[in-house]
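Data card: per-record layout.
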Amino acid sequence: MTLTLTDLLVADRPDSWREVGFAVDGDVCRVGAVRIRLVGPQHGTGIVGWALGGVPGDTRDVDGIPTTPAPADPPAAAQAPTHPNGVTHLDHVVLLSPDLARTGAALGALGLDVRRERAGALGGTPMRQLFYRLGEVILEVVGSPETAGAGPSCLWGLTHVVADIDAAAALLGERTGPVKDAVQPGRRITTVRGRDLGLSVRTALISPHLRRQDRQ
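The structure for this 216-residue chain is written out next.
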């Protein structure tokens, strides 16, 4: 069975997400096929859990990340709303791992295979990125290729696709940084300055993939 990301639990207030151009219904922000449940800072900070479709029913943890199995036969998903900032879907979720081998084994036990690997650096420190697929969403696992530490993995950041990145940046103004070239060829990206607005998740907006644009 294919694993899919259905829900993310985020310890932010709904108003913080509305401030950066997301449409929020109650405490739920639907981005593409993913429900982002804004449970408030009383539950911690950042992304505090996720729900995955296709995992065994007794799964409660994936390498330290609180996990809930999605219903085996969920009801038909409601149509995602139109977001004022132009977001259309979630491109990828970043998972920070203190031990890449351990995290890879935990994901492999669920039936996930590495689709791609990339060497990089974070603050001058060598890093390795491992890419997996969770339905329409990419899971990007980041960690040191040389050292292994203790402690749990954590879901650290979200990158959303916007139909028009220049329009999104103009709408948000000082709430987002400069638009620059992304690592992926032909794409452009900007980082939301959300800390002062109450966002505890590192959030970026990125232009569509070239192949997706070519089909439009």
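Known properties of this structure: The two ends are 30 Å apart (CA to CA). The longest helix spans residues 100-109.

See the next section for split statistics.
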